[in-house]
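@channel sequence for tomorrow's demo:
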Amino acid sequence: MIHRILPDRSGFGAKRAASLALVVSLLSFSPQALAQATPQDPPPQMQKSDSADALSGRRLELRGMQDTIEASQEQRAKIEAEVASIRTDRAKLSTALVDLVQTIDGRERKISEAEARLDTLTGSEEAIRRSLASRRQVIAEILAALQRMGRKPPPALLVAPEDMLAAIRTSMMLGSVLPEMRAETEALASDLSDLLQLRRSIATERDSLAGDVEKLGVDRQRLAALIDARQSALAAAEEALGAENARAAELAKQAASLKDLIARMETENAAAARGAEAARKSDEAQKAAQAAVPEAQRKLAMAPFKDPARLAPASAFADTKGLLPLPVAGSLQRGFGAPDGFGGAEKGMLIATRPQAVVASPCDGWAAYAGPYRTYGQLLIINAGQGYYIILAGMDRINVNVGQFILAGEPVAVMGDGSAKTAAAIAIGAAQPILYIEFRKDGAAIDPGPWWAKPELQKVRG
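structure tokens (generated this afternoon):
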């Protein structure tokens, strides 16, 4: 009979129609409808069972909290034991700091990439959901047609030959409708399959992201302990440190510019003056060594950051072009020489970072200034020798003292959460923390681009 043959020829059977009806009913179901449903009160026995289940759940939750606290205490004890074992060995402490900063930097990059992938997957999921929602009316119309066909099937020719005209009209209608129904069903099945796969990918990314964030927290806790150990080991002149910090703050108020601040610090602050004198002696020693064995000096410049026990730069700053690591992982917002929005050009570069990102020194040098300065936020000036100075600004907390010798890759500061706006962040309207980096040579700003290691520069631009 025609009403039996046509569905089989179209490939659209009763099972597919039932599946389509189930899918549409699920899509059209809304949380509001669930909220409007009025549940009946459970019997007393069920209420007692629910109370017992709730109490059991609370006990399990409490046990989980206790296990978490015990695990945290064990982790803290492990970190403290590790720090105690290397506290007196400066080389080991410096190596641990540099290695841990590299680990944190890589983990922060991985987290940022996972967040970007998660945003893309979530956007794709929303697009498919909107597509399905936009086709609800079409699917409902097709299901209604199927229901009408089920209630009033086409006539059988052998039973009622006089209904030949009605049978032909029914066949024509089915021939035009069923291909459209099949196409809609196949598109819907494809979208639902993609949606299921996206949700699985999103769950996997979220689990991976949560694990990386947890590991990052442990790494930052370990880093804080190592920094405390380093600073306590270096604080031999603890009594003089407070007076020198106060003097640095007073000089910062009086300085009219960064150039003026550097000059005042190195002439009127004892710790900064000692660092400047050490830089001058290091420059003289490097010139003498270069004149004596220029070939050895060139070989040394290819690996200037290998000795963690060094107390002076391993090579002249000018020889480190193309070798310096970026101080933080992030995305470049403005480069040197770009328009600053006020009719001038940028004297440095602006990098958007993650909240609480660790800032590392890009080079060896002495801290010439460490503290707040005008609209720069927390400002760190590093004397790299040969008249070169590295300026890092926009941090939330600085972890080194004025006059302290810093190794390339050592942690020197921590970024904030972006709530405290610096001039650099306001200039570009950034919501996240912004690190400002400026290189100076003999008081004038220079392009830092030639000094960065090329893979590092590609990462920060990504």
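heads up for whoever presents: The domain at 238-461 is CATH 2.70.70.10 (Glucose Permease (Domain IIA)).
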